[in-house]
Write a structure and sequence with these properties.
This protein is mainly alpha-helical and 234 residues long. The protein is built from 6 helices and 2 strands; from the N terminus they run H-E-H-H-H-E-H-H. It is 77% helix and 2% strand. Strands 1-2 form a two-stranded parallel ribbon.
Length: 234
């Protein structure tokens, strides 16, 4: 009976040694990644939180880390501790495949989120540039129109003055100058408007190209995830 008790105790000791125990206050990022539900991003978030706020006072405190909610905590709480050395049990082939797939999924999700953010930023930047270019063009066109109108008014006044003095030739020249100034102002305003429209179009095209690049990156990440998943199945 004594032998059976000793054998049972030895088996319990061996089982306790084989189980993983990760000290969340001292474990490295790689050691944290061995936990169920924890990938590179969440592991780094734990390390960063620990560096900023100091050691965790309780196991529940790990839920204060960005990205770790109740569901993730429930998966890992049986394998974490606040003290002692970090030990990790050697996973079997299925566990390694599952962990690799989980990490690949998290990486693909992060890549997709980053690509979406880049596309959104590119679109917003393009829109801002187009709006700014349009506003500048409109402002320049208004200034050119105002300057032309002012000059035309001055020339018209000169023509009137010349006519009043009986200087028909000067009045005709002044009228011609006024018409010319008006035509030049109109042409200049038209050119400014066309330039603004062209710049806005280029800005829009640039934003569209950036959005396309971001979308391609997201697709590449998705394809990579699919390849990794297929490879895992094989």
């Amino acid at each position: 009976m004594k032998r059976i008790a000793l054998l049972f105790a030895a088996l319990l000791a061996w089982a306790g040694f084989a189980l993983a125990a990760v000290n969340i206050n001292t474990a490295t990022q790689q050691e944290l990644e061995s936990l169920d539900g924890i990938g590179p991003v969440k592991a780094k978030a734990i390390v960063d939180y620990r560096a900023k706020n100091g050691p965790f006072k309780s196991l529940d405190d790990v839920k204060k880390v960005s990205g770790i909610k109740d569901a993730t905590f429930d998966k890992m709480k049986g394998d974490i501790t606040l003290t002692g050395a970090t030990t990790t049990a050697k996973p079997d082939a299925k566990a390694e495949t599952k962990a690799a797939q989980a990490k690949d999924k998290e990486k693909a999700t992060d890549a997709k989120a980053q690509a979406k953010e880049k596309a959104t930023d590119a679109k917003a930047e393009s829109k801002d540039k187009a709006t700014e270019a349009k506003a500048r063009g409109k402002e320049k066109a208004t200034e050119a129109k105002a300057a032309g109108k002012e000059k035309a008014t001055e020339d018209k006044a000169k023509a009137k003055e010349a006519k009043a003095e009986g200087k028909d030739a000067k009045a005709a020249d002044a009228k011609a100058d006024a018409r010319k100034a008006k035509a030049e102002a109109k042409e200049k305003a038209k050119e400014e408007k066309a330039a603004a429209a062209k710049k806005a179009k280029e800005a829009k095209a640039e934003g569209k190209a950036k959005a396309a690049d971001a979308k391609a990156e997201a697709k590449a990440a998705k394809d990579a995830k699919k390849d990794d998943k297929d490879s895992g199945k094989k």
